[in-house]
């Protein structure tokens, strides 16, 4: 009789645990990442022509050249999740740290074809294809995973200010001057911004990695 009672109690205990687990899943919705619009971002980082936009913002078409002198366009990233940033190879401050943290992301998703990286130089007049090639080799960039791109300065400026929303304008500059930020930008497979992350903080990379995994579930 005692054995039967213990078995019954054990079964009821398992049923209770299962019920609690199921209720917890129902009552705790899966995390959803926001879809960022220009009006949600610090206005200093957004071109004045789009600061009012509240929906439908996407990364504009682009055509640039990577470290292997191959053309990189928006089509290269079609249907992909990617992390974008802005830098320059002679930057003595935040850029080396940002690149080290990009390496963390590269290593985390090295075998995942759905996740790519994209770094834009803000000094294309200095960072030629050959300069980017040397820099990428020094940093350990895997070409199939990570494009470092150069090209027309006006286009890069517009991408930073009108698409990725991560650069301050240098007032009075006639040559598309900008101050790039430390932000990494998470872009989904539909070219929408889903997050901004401090690219100088290695601890934040864990948050970014988790958010990428959330996006992957959203796409599946």
Would you kindly provide a written description of the structure presented here, covering whatever features stand out?
The protein is of the alpha/beta class. It has two domains: 1-30; 38-219, Glutaredoxin (3-Layer(aba) Sandwich), CATH 3.40.30. Helix content is 37%, strand content 19%. It is built from five helices and nine strands. The chain has helices at 2-27, 94-108, 129-139, 153-163, 202-219, and strands at residues 63-65, 71-73, 81-87, 115-121, 146-149, 167-169, 178-180, 183-187, 193-198. A five-stranded mixed β-sheet has the order 5-4-3-8-9. It is globular. The N and C termini lie far apart (51 Å).
The third-level CATH topology of the largest domain is: Glutaredoxin
User: Sheet with the most strands?
Assistant: 5 strands, mixed
> What is the highest CATH level, the class of the largest domain?
Alpha Beta
Number of domains: 2
What does the overall shape look like? globular
Helix percentage? 25-40%
Which strand-content bin applies to the residues? 15-25%
- The secondary-structure class comes to alpha/beta
Mean pLDDT, nearest integer?
A: 89
Radius of gyration: 22 Å
Q: What order do the SSEs take from the amino end to the carboxyl end, as H and E?
A: HEEEHEHEHEEEEH
CATH superfamily of the largest domain: Glutaredoxin
CATH architecture of the largest domain: 3-Layer(aba) Sandwich
Distance between the termini: 51 Å
Task: Note the total helix count.
Answer: 5
Strands ordered across the widest β-sheet: 5-4-3-8-9
- Unreliable residue stretches: none
Topology, number of strands: 9
């Amino acid at each position: 009789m005692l054995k039967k009672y213990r078995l019954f109690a054990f079964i009821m205990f398992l049923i209770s645990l299962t019920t609690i687990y199921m209720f917890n899943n129902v009552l705790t919705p899966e995390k959803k990442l926001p879809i960022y619009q220009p009006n949600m971002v610090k206005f200093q980082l957004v071109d004045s022509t789009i600061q009012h936009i509240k929906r439908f913002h996407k990364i504009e078409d682009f055509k640039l050249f990577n470290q292997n002198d191959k053309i990189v366009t928006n089509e290269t990233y079609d249907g992909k999740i990617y992390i974008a940033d802005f830098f320059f190879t002679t930057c003595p401050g935040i850029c080396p740290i940002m690149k080290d943290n990009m390496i963390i992301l590269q290593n985390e998703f090295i075998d995942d074809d759905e996740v790519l990286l994209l770094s834009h130089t803000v000094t294309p007049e200095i960072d030629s294809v050959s300069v980017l090639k040397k820099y990428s080799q020094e940093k350990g960039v895997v070409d199939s995973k990570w494009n470092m791109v150069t090209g027309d300065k006006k286009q890069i400026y517009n991408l930073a200010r009108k698409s990725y929303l991560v650069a301050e304008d240098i007032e009075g500059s006639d040559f598309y001057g900008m101050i790039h930020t430390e932000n990494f930008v998470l872009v989904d497979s539909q070219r929408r911004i889903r997050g901004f992350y401090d690219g100088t903080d290695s601890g934040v990379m864990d948050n970014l990695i988790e958010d990428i995994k959330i996006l992957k579930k959203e796409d599946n």
